[in-house]
């Protein structure tokens, strides 16, 4: 193999690497350590479908079509200070949970949020902290059919939102942001 061949291979590899890295929607948003976190498994083009039994909020603070400022800190800073458009509003119990991803085997601690209607075979009313339950949630790869431990819960209005990351990546039908994580734009 000549030096020219090695140089060509190196240039091709470097070009591919740069292209691949720039396809990652977290580039320019997360630091190196954060890039390794489970949010690489976030679903960026979520389904508008919601679980059976999820009750539409009758008089939400932020109605469908309105915009708000997100103060959500549960996406490694990706959503803090981001303008969101409300595409769904629901009354439910939201849970922060800990689980092991069925996709990566990685332990995910205090994932926010899973709604009560995404849980399997549960009765009405909030589950106790420490309870273990299966979920049908699919807004993160690897959370469906995983055993989740309830860290804590909050009865609230949850919002499905669209937003754009600082690097221009569009996120649609993101599930979930709780009302306490939103502020008016003005």
Helix content: 10-25%
Largest sheet: 8 strands, antiparallel
The multimeric state of the shown protein is single chain
Rg is: 19 Å
Q: What is the CATH architecture assignment?
A: Roll
Briefly, what CATH class? Mainly Beta
Alpha plus pi helix count: 2
Q: Quote the distance from N terminus to C terminus.
A: 64 Å
Question: What's the gist of this structure?
Answer:
The protein is mainly β and 186 residues long. 13% of the residues lie in helices and 35% in strands. The relative contact order is 0.21.
Topology:
Blueprint: H1 3-23, H2 32-35, E1 55-56, E2 67-70, E3 83-100, E4 107-115, E5 132-134, E6 147-164, E7 170-178, E8 182-183
Antiparallel strand pairs: 1-3, 2-3, 2-8, 3-4, 3-6, 5-6, 6-7
Provide an overview of this structure.
The chain is mainly beta and 186 residues long. The chain has one domain: SH3 type barrels (Roll). Helices cover 13% and strands 35% of the residues. The chain has helices spanning 3-23, 32-35; strands at residues 55-56, 67-70, 83-100, 107-115, 132-134, 147-164, 170-178, 182-183. Strands 1, 2, 3, 4, 5, 6, 7 and 8 form an eight-stranded antiparallel beta sheet that branches. A hairpin with a 5-residue loop joins β6 (147-164) and β7. It is globular. It starts with a helix and ends with a strand. The model is unreliable at 19-40 (pLDDT under 50).
